[in-house]
Amino acid sequence: MDASMWVAKTGLTAQSTRMTTIANNLANVNTVGFKKDRAMFEDLLYQRIVQAGAQADVNSLTPTGLMLGTGTRVVSTEKIHRQGNMISTENALDVAIAGDGFFAIQQADGTTAYTRDGSFKLSVDGTVVTASGESMIPAITIPQDASSITIGRDGTVTAELAAGGGAVQVGQIQLSRFVNSAGLQPIGRNLYAETNSSGQAIVGIPGDQGAGMLMQGSLEASNVNVVEEMVNMIETQRAYEINSKAIAAADGMLRFLNNNL
């Protein structure tokens, strides 16, 4: 009886972790470029009471074994890098990626991070930066006398100069791709860090060698589906309740033995 209570306890812990994952998805339903998480479960070790294929007698083998499971656990949380919907903003510095790829960002400590959030701003010196003030890699600087900015589908950045100065190319946006995007480490602020599992960044021009194309004046919305997450939340709640009832049932069986033996 004690074993069944401990097995149900692992179910409570795992379902609680899954609920945290779902809650984080719902909390980020309006976060630009956010990718939903999915909790991955695995069963724990088994107690081998009788080995399948053991010698039942001199002439026969046991066709099945007696294996008692010890529960479950959440082994990982996986980012689902599914394309989010495109939201038109008509802001010249809002850029969405249609397809595979990430913007490379220079962090304050000198390391490189990656993001799908293309809501860029201009710093005081005209450098294109994120909302946190971190510049894109390679850095792009807009002239002070620019009257408009055009970002092509291939990442070419052109500025139209005021007073009839004409158009001038001021930079080239590059995208970074990974063999295993799910292996990237989310570090907050809509940023990801490279890991051994993700592999090294494959840097290229938008639209080249599998990289996505850019869409100026748009942002990629979170790929969280609220209805889907609500269904997952109800499913998790029911599983939590069932594990709670399993503990209550095991407790009732122990209480019956104590009172009647």
Provide structural commentary.
Helix content is 23%, strand content 32%. It has 261 residues and is of the alpha+beta class. The protein folds into two domains: 2-81 and 224-260, no CATH class; 86-220, no CATH class. The strands form nine sheets. A three-stranded antiparallel beta sheet has the order 8-7-11, with no helix packed on it. A three-stranded antiparallel beta sheet has the order 12-13-14, with no helix packed on it. A hairpin with a 4-residue loop joins strand 12 and strand 13 (156-161). Helix 1 (2-27) packs antiparallel against helix 2 (226-260). The radius of gyration is 27 Å and the shape is elongated.
Strand order of the largest sheet: 8-7-11
Low-confidence stretches: none
**H/E element string?**
HEEEEEEEEEEEEEEEEEEEEH
The helix fraction, in percent, is 10-25%
Give me the number of helical elements.
2
The whole-number mean of residue pLDDT values reads 94
Specify Rg, calculated over alpha carbons.
27 Å
Structural domain tally: 2
Query: Count of DSSP E strands?
Result: 20
Question: What structural category do the secondary elements indicate?
Answer: alpha+beta
Shape: elongated
What share of the residues does DSSP label as strand, in percent? 25-35%
Distance between the termini: 15 Å
Largest sheet: 3 strands, antiparallel
